[in-house]
Amino acid sequence: MSAKTETLVWLAQRISAMVLAPLVLVHIVTVIYAIRGGLSAAEILSRTQGSLFWGGLYGLFVLAAAIHGSIGARTVIGEMTPWRGRSLDAAAVAFAVGLMAMGFRAVGALT
What we know:
Number of strands: 0
Low-confidence stretches: none
Radius of gyration: 17 Å
Largest sheet: none
Shape: elongated
CATH architecture: Up-down Bundle
């Protein structure tokens, strides 16, 4: 990758982390609230079905996590193995697409 592309990947990693931080906090607080309130899975789903807020929040969560995780995995693999170049980049993109597909499917079931 060119230096410009690497800079953009680095920036995407940092921006995705900044997006993830508050989303993780909202998720954890929501889970604690649901558990302490004794809500069942069915009760939680009844509250989230059709909600644009929760769909949007978790959709953004999925997008940020897929970007952040795939870039992080690419970086770790590149540092720990001899695997480099376009094939590693393609694998990272495929990983991101797979994470997004699974995540958006889960969001669809939630909302």
